[in-house]
Amino acid sequence: MHLTICGAGRDQSEIKVTLKQNGKTIQEHSVLTKQGRWQVILNPESAGRNYELLIEENGVKKTHLCDLAFGDVFLFGGQSNMEYPLKDEANYDDSFSLKNIRIYTVPRVEYIQVNQKFPAFENSGWKLASSSALSDFSAIAAYTGQILNHLSEFNGSNEEEIPIGLVSCNKGGTSVSCWMDENSLKKDPDLYSHFYKRYWDDIQDQSDQTEDLKREEFAKISRRYLEACNQFKIHHPKASRAEMKRELGHTPWPGPKGKKDFGRPCGLFETMFSNISGLPFKAVIWYQGEEDTKDGEFYESLLLQLIECWRASIINRPDFYIVQLPGYNDDPAKKWPLVREAQRKVCSKLSYCHLITAIDAGSSDNIHPADKLKLGKRIGQFIYRHEYCKESVSHPEIIEVIQSDQKTLVRFDQPLFVKNPDAGQDSNPALIPIDLQDTIVFNKGQTSSAYENDPTPVYFYQDGSPLSPFTL
Fold first, then answer.
1. What is the DSSP string of 305-332?
2. DSSP class of 431
3. Is 316 left (phi over 0), alpha (psi -120 to 50) or beta?
4. Do 38 and 11 contact (CB within 8 A), yes or no?
5. In Å, what is the CA distance from 132 to each residue of 97, 180, 251?
6. How far apart are CA 287 and CA 356, in angstroms?
7. Helix, strand, coil shares of the chain as percentages rounded to 5?
8. How wide is the angle at C-alpha 376 spanned by C-alphas 371 and 378, nearest 5°?
9. Deepest in the core among 16, 138, 197, 407, taking most CB within 10 A?
10. CA separation for the pair 383, 391 (Å, rounded)
């Protein structure tokens, strides 16, 4: 794929761009600036390392970038469980690092005012995946990258020579509607009315001063709640998270609406995603949905619009890997099955979307399960098999439903399995085929499987992942 390099300079200046590998010049391009801007398009290069880029203006060196790499870049989007930092993860080892991998976190800009971005952030850029750089990086992305690296080396394939880049673009507490542009919401009148128009209608008469006062008060409430949690843990060190919530209530949420609210519709599309749109990505991994469970009946349409919006903005229109919501039981609304079903249906409809189930990777009383290794490993294995081994891996699809007076037969396009009762309890249990190989039998009146907020998975498919909950 061609690579575009652009910049600014004095008008009619000569810009020379030189690309080298291992000290040898392999490309050289010259161009004149026009109205203070210039652009050079580099020819495609093979995956590899030890590249350097030199940019000169009228013979004077302006930029010299070393230790560059050409390879595959994966984009990790979503909300808090994708954002969840490695340093807080249950399996974290402070010596953990990833050789041959570069990482980049898109600055979590919440709003822009008078050309100034808030909150302020240090200049961002690509980093080597050292232990210090990874500590604040997405745990899911880090473990996925680890598996991709490990599998390519273990299998001795050519892919071990392909450098990998991981881009983290996510923010906790966000709806899908935050991550798409207004035109995408407008394509569905119901979405536009429910998520965009209603939001801004609610605060059409709100002044900036009123919004600031509401934000200050919410910050005080949040700090008081956090302090209460800390005190509870001190006085009740053996109490569970569920017990603490029963005593103190849930985390204050959501914050006040307004122009500075990062949860406003389309906001993060402009302040975060737009900074990386137009770039090529090998694939997009999307892990989100918790914030939208309250509006679960809209999620299928939301996700469809998000995928089309991002694919239209990314130059090579990559495949999406949708991570399904894990189990969670501390939500009285009981709408988590709606979101999971929407995720399953979207992946069934779109050939470029692939479902990665996570029903067994949750925590009943913690919306942010601390173990991300299990899911990161599953994502990495699925992507490696599909993107590099070119295997036709997929989540099982329903291909036939046969109903009778007493039973309903639900047939899938591949064999299904259950845990082997003789294998004992194990993190990677042995599986045995179900009686009818690819067909689940429902008794009279039964129309769904694992269709609950926090179900225990019963059926699995060939790679050991749980079958998605579903309803007929």
1. HHHHHHHHHSTT--EEEEEPP------T
2. E
3. alpha
4. no
5. 8, 32, 30
6. 10
7. 30, 25, 40
8. 115
9. 138
10. 10
Q: In sequence order, what are the residues at sequence separation of 6 or more whose Cβ sits closer than 8 angstroms to the Cβ of residue 188? A: 301, 305
Whole-number Å distance between alpha carbons of 148 and 152: 6
Unique residue bearing structure tokens 């009740």: 236
The residues that bridge with 57 in the sheet, in sequence order, are 15, 60
Query: Taking the model in full, what pTM does it have?
Result: 0.93
Angle between helices 139-154 and 373-383 (to 10 degrees): 50
Reading the chain (472 residues) residue by residue, the pLDDT tens digits are 888 898 999 999 999 999 999 999 999 999 999 999 999 999 999 899 999 999 999 999 999 999 999 999 999 999 999 999 999 999 999 999 998 899 999 999 999 998 899 998 877 899 999 999 999 999 999 999 999 988 876 555 544 578 999 999 999 999 999 999 999 999 999 999 999 999 999 999 999 999 999 999 999 999 999 999 999 999 999 998 889 988 999 899 999 999 999 999 999 999 999 999 989 999 999 999 999 999 999 999 999 999 999 999 999 999 999 999 999 998 888 899 999 999 999 999 999 999 999 999 999 999 999 999 999 999 999 999 999 999 989 999 999 999 998 999 999 999 999 998 877 666 556 799 999 999 999 999 999 999 999 999 999 999 999 999 999 9
Q: How far is residue 307's CA from residue 285's CA, in Å, rounded to a whole number?
A: 11
**DSSP class of 43:** P
